[in-house]
Inverse folding.
DNA sequence: TGTTTTTAGTAAGGTGGCTAACTATTTCTC
DNA sequence: GAGAAATAGTTAGCCACCTTACTAAAAACA
């Protein structure tokens, strides 16, 4: 499902106009920011359309990607709902909902855990595995196509710049949580 | 509302491993792609958290941004639900839902159109206008902060690279629609 | 042993989509 | 001018993907 975004980015001159009204608005910063939002949205739409061709959604795809059997041992594979929730940064309740639909469609199988009876162990079924093997070649070709206008060097530059932004975004999140925690201290602490 | 994304991107060596299984997978392409998805998601989360502080959501914010009074005449302002829907590339039904909640909260006012009795004219109320004027300074400062690790030159580079990707994504969408249209022609046409 | 924490899942609610159908109005065609 | 077609906004129903609060059971801790 898509977030609302503008079909067209505002013209630069509109940003400059708006900056007269809102002095904190830096037109070139805003422009770059909006390019990021837009590009992210548009590639997501392309991927989602491909998923829809196969009657699957982004969320379910990600679950199956996490569960897919991997050759070699370099990359761990989660197996409990809590592990999936942690990797995807969502609540267990969300995972339950996703797994419910995947189980309903025969793509995953849940079994009680062996060590801990509270736990469930989650696996792709052979059907789920086959489904992913059928989907992924074209998925990766689509990714290649989307990035096809960028040289290897440009892709590396892009990754570097985006990492700078992500780092900043994460820092905003951390600073925000500290701010929130401080606000929640009883007033008497400040004596 | 966020889409499911991985908390951590897979390590490059995991991509290389996976490429052995899926030959279409190009590790460096995939890596850049995932950086885009992640960065987009993370900045969205930061913005959404700020919106939540003011009891508003991304979709409602965008509606109000489109409706906000603008000094000068360089930038048109939409005024009907259909115009909003067109600018945001969603259905009129979706706009109805968003406007319902904004009207409920006193931020927008709907009036019958003057020229065409099918239409509604939509405006920010003074309360809505004041709300946005209260929110936007910090919003723009947040944007500046998020992009703060990038120089002016880097921002221009980023915008250029992202535009290349957006262009490709849009082309994928166009190609897809042509493909779909061709598939829908009656079989007899091919004689 | 008793208390606290953890696990998966349920219930309830929200956001932001969609489609199809509807009603009223406007535009188009003959 | 009459009727058909298109348009505008809304309604109803559905979906995906969240959240929090809660439950029962199990595990960990003191």
């Amino acid at each position: 499902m898509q977030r609302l975004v503008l079909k067209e980015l505002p013209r630069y001159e509109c940003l400059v106009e708006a900056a007269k009204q809102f002095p904190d608005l830096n037109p070139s910063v805003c422009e770059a920011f909006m390019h990021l939002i837009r590009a992210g949205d548009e590639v997501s739409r392309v991927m989602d359309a491909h998923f829809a061709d196969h009657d699957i959604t982004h969320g379910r795809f990600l679950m199956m990607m996490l569960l897919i059997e991997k050759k070699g041992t370099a990359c761990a594979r989660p197996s409990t709902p809590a592990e999936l929730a942690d990797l995807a940064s969502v609540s267990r309740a969300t995972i339950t909902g996703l797994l419910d639909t995947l189980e309903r469609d025969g793509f995953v199988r849940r079994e009680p855990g062996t060590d801990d009876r509270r736990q469930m162990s989650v696996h792709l079924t052979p059907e789920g595995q086959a489904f992913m093997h059928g989907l992924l070649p074209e998925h990766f070709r689509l990714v290649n196509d989307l990035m096809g206008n960028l040289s290897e060097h440009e892709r590396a530059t892009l990754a570097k710049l985006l990492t700078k932004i992500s780092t900043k975004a994460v820092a905003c999140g951390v600073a925000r949580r500290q701010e929130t925690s401080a606000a929640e201290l009883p007033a008497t602490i400040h004596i």
In short: Helices of chain A lie at 12-21, 27-53, 58-67, 81-88, 92-104, 126-146, 152-183. The two ends of chain A are 49 Å apart (CA to CA). The mean pLDDT of chain A is 87. Chain A has seven helices and two strands.
